[in-house]
Specification:
Strand 9 and strand 10 form a beta hairpin. Helix content is 64%, strand content 11%. It starts with a helix and ends with a helix. The chain contains 22 helices and ten strands. The protein has three domains: 160 residues, no CATH class; 217 residues, no CATH class; 104 residues. With 664 residues, it is an alpha+beta fold.
Length: 664
């Protein structure tokens, strides 16, 4: 009965979405206030109905209702409760319900917190958002119904992919969806602006907090996915340029460009058409990621579906939404042209360079991701595009961007003084040079020059961000009291920018350290043998077989770790075999410090009393996720800025916006 309620709720959500997608849009065009007002009521109603459906599906997983095909195919009664719940979105059908739930959540948030928006404009935004919901709710109901019944139901389920039975995968998809589904709101703002034919500073102020929220969630979601891949897959890496990884990274790159471009629109009334185009492309990349995961064109642990018919349906949605948006853009963008002028050497110029490099980087990732698929589609053979391509194309684009990232905030708006900006970055230059020389002196060898360059860039970013903050607060040039007063008076969005740039610097340092100075030892060890990895000594204490877990059987090794003769820890990596799914997984044991990670993996026996082991030392790898977390925190801090929450319009403007449908 509860499953039927969930299905009925999805049907009602589709009906409400159709109303929200049509009547408010017509009402805004024909000046019918009652129809315009419907948007503010239908958006929360849509959220309620989808939440009921999601709750019904979650309940079915929690109670192990195997009369549902979806539950029987992706759960098991012996599975721990947290993985029963996360199993709701660990499959194609359930993940789509989460997708539309987050879509509705953002729409309801605009309805509830968008009181600073003109009523007609808000109605158009919510109508566009509802059109997206209509497509995906129809996709669920007609091709991916999560509430299909089995008759007779099986005694138990088939379980969930063991790789997904992990806390990282319990957290990673919701944050990822909050990110790239969240960009649907910026898309809706862009389409509403094109319909009205108006983009100005107020529009940029309205769109920035939603872009910032989606970007922060996506940053956190990508970081969680990287962390999961690092400790769960057993190969010691944190990024492999997997096509599905790329599908979340591309909207992040373009979304970052959008975030910076919106600042130029707000401050200088420039780059208006470009910013609208970025909003469209960002969500287009989000839809592309949805297609790649669910079309069957990719084989990946991240991929959900293998039914080409579903992929064709999503491809049709992409054509309608993105094609329609680009057609509208081509027809209306000329009306948005104009705005403030600025010199190439200026804050705006630095942000334009930032945009060009980020979008070009996204294009290189797109090419590397799709090229093998097109080669296969046209039967031109099988090729693989991996890290060498991305390292050769993506990394060189990031070097000038990171340099500009330190200089840009030091430049004035409209016309900047490059010499003066560089003079204020003397400390950053000195830090970069010192770190580069220290790196060359301490770690000379293969790749040392590139590592020194990367560490210099990290130091440049960190010290540059701190120098910019020191300039704002007149640190060391005024009394401590005045500097403290200036710091407290800084907008939170400015502090957020400083934290974000600091996070990028820490992230770059972590990536460099983990890639340049990893120590690796793969060998056969017997109990009692010792091996040195970096400055640690590891002794294999023994290997126990047949260790039982909640729903798996494990082989568990024990390594005594010491450093300089002093005991440090005992690491216990496992090789698990999940009984229901009949699939093995590798569970690494990791000793984490700020200096680096000691990483141990147990493999197969050699039949002579020995075991294959893989041991790694990953310097500074924790800095990667610390930097990403700091970037996400910076986004949250910026969102708390009252200027972004209140918005640009005055009360008089809001009043005029509310009266527009009745008068115009």
């Amino acid at each position: 009965m509860i499953a039927e309620i969930g299905l009925y709720a999805l049907v009602l959500a589709l009906v409400v979405s159709l109303v929200q997608a049509t009547l408010p849009l017509i009402g805004a065009a024909r000046r019918i206030p009652e129809w315009v007002a419907l948007a503010a009521w239908t958006a929360p109603a849509q959220l309620v109905f989808i939440a009921v459906a999601f709750g019904a599906l979650t309940y079915a997983y929690v109670v192990s209702d195997f009369s549902l095909l979806n539950v029987a195919a992706n759960s098991h009664s012996a599975k721990p409760m947290i993985y029963k719940v996360s199993g709701v979105w660990g499959n194609h059908e359930g993940s789509l319900v989460l997708w539309v739930l987050i879509l509705a959540l953002f729409g309801a948030a605009v309805a509830g917190f968008g009181s600073n928006l003109p009523v007609a404009f808000r109605a158009r935004v919510l109508a566009v958002q509802a059109w997206i919901a209509v497509g995906f709710l129809a996709f669920i109901l007609f091709t991916s119904n999560p509430f299909l019944r089995l008759d007779p139901p099986p005694a138990d389920g088939r379980g969930l992919n063991p790789l997904l039975q992990d806390i990282g995968l319990a957290l990673h998809p919701p944050f990822l969806y909050l990110g790239y589904v969240g960009f649907s709101i910026t898309f809706s703002f862009a389409i509403a602006a094109l319909i009205e034919g108006k983009v100005d500073a107020a529009w940029a102020r309205w769109v920035r907090p939603w872009t910032l929220a989606a970007w922060s969630f996506l940053t956190l979601g990508i970081a969680l996915g990287s962390w999961w891949a690092y400790y769960e897959l057993g190969w010691g890496g944190w990024w492999y340029w997997d096509p599905v990884e790329n599908s979340s990274f591309m909207p992040w790159l373009v979304g970052t460009a959008l975030l910076h471009s919106a600042v130029v629109v707000e401050k200088r009334d420039a780059l208006k058409t470009w910013t609208v185009l970025l909003a469209i492309i960002t969500f287009a990349f989000s839809l592309l990621g949805t297609f790649l995961v669910r079309s069957g064109v990719l084989t990946s642990v991240h991929a959900f579906a293998t039914d080409p018919a579903r992929g064709i349906f999503i491809l049709g949605l992409i054509v309608v939404y993105v094609g329609g948006a680009l057609f509208l853009y081509a027809a209306r963008a000329q009306a948005l042209a104009g705005g403030g002028l600025f010199a190439p050497i200026s804050r705006e110029g630095a942000l334009v360079l930032n945009n060009l490099l980020l979008t070009t980087a996204a294009a290189t990732v797109l090419l590397g991701t799709l090229y093998p698929l097109f080669v296969d589609l046209f039967e031109l053979g099988k090729i693989s595009v991996g890290p060498p391509y991305f390292n050769a194309t993506f990394v060189p684009l990031m070097i000038p961007m990171l340099v500009a990232l330190g200089i840009g905030p030091m430049l004035a708006w409209k016309r900047g003084d490059l010499g003066g900006a560089l003079a204020r970055l003397t400390a950053a230059f000195a830090a970069a040079a010192a770190v580069a020389l220290a790196t060359l002196a301490l770690a000379w060898g293969t790749g040392a020059v590139l590592a020194a360059l990367a560490m210099a860039l990290a130091a440049w970013l960190v010290v540059g961000a701190l120098s910019e903050l020191a300039e704002r607060t007149r640190l060391f040039r005024a009394g401590a009291g005045e500097s403290w007063r200036r710091l407290k008076g800084l907008p939170r969005s400015a502090l957020g920018m400083t934290l974000a740039h600091l996070g990028v610097g820490i992230l770059v340092a972590g990536m460099t350290g983990s890639l340049a100075w990893t120590a690796e030892d793969i060998r056969v060890m017997r109990p009692g043998e010792r091996v040195a990895v970096a400055d640690y000594d590891l002794e294999l204490l023994g290997v126990r077989e047949g260790v039982m877990g909640p729903n798996y059987r494990a082989t568990r090794a024990g390594f005594a770790v010491s450093r300089a003769g002093a005991p440090v820890a005992v690491l216990e990596p496992e090789k698990r075999f999940y009984l229901v799914e009949e699939r093995p997984t590798t569970e690494a044991a990791i000793l984490t410090t700020w200096r680096g990670d000691l990483y141990a993996v147990i493999g197969d026996p050699d039949g002579k009393g020995g075991w294959v082991v893989r041991l790694y030392y990953k310097p500074m790898i924790l800095w990667i996720w610390a930097g990403a977390a700091l970037m996400a925190l910076a986004g949250a801090l910026s969102l708390s800025d009252r200027r972004l929450r209140v918005g640009a319009p005055t009360r008089a403007r809001r009043r005029r916006g509310a009266e527009a449908p009745a008068r115009a």
